[in-house]
Amino acid sequence: MPTPKIIHRGLEPYEASFAAMRAFTDARTGDTQDELWIVEHPPVFTLGLGADPSHVLNANGIPVIQTDRGGEVTYHGPGQVVIYLLMDLRRSGPGARLFAREFVHRIEQSVIDTLAAYNLAGERKPGAPGIYIADGKLKGAKIAALGLKVRGNGCTYHGVSLNVAMDLAPFSWINPCGYAGLATVDMKTMGVEVPLREVQLRLADNLANLLTT
Fold it and tell me: Is 177 tagged catalytic?
């Protein structure tokens, strides 16, 4: 696959990113270059298509937005790396449904590789998309979330978020990804203080490399 173009969109309201993703996907053709969008959002809760709104326990004034991605409720806010993957899976060989699973696997591996660069061990959990701390006192806490939309034509949008240095309180106001009491952490909590932009670039590079090999 051709290497996707990496776009830095800066701090942007979620609604603007959501509308832009759909517009880009509506307009793309078979020749459109894939893109990875690096974004940081003001505080927002987002609901996946199958989300139960009752999993938002108390929004405390933070906007709650219904989306068309998979998954449950999650939180986005400052200090979190968000990368949206605007990809055409048809370019990656036969079996779109099989590749969709491999696509998710590679996204998760990109997060694991990014964490490993800072001596943090991340792991998958069967049936629970995202990445979780693999060892230590905070083993099992969620540090990255994943939610995608794959259209019937194989084009994707939405993506992955990795918690770097956030106000984690809003995660306690929801059942993250539909799981009551699920602990959520960031890299700072795990003892790693690193500039957000550095993690943005490292994760984007890992995604670009793993999604095009």
Answer: yes
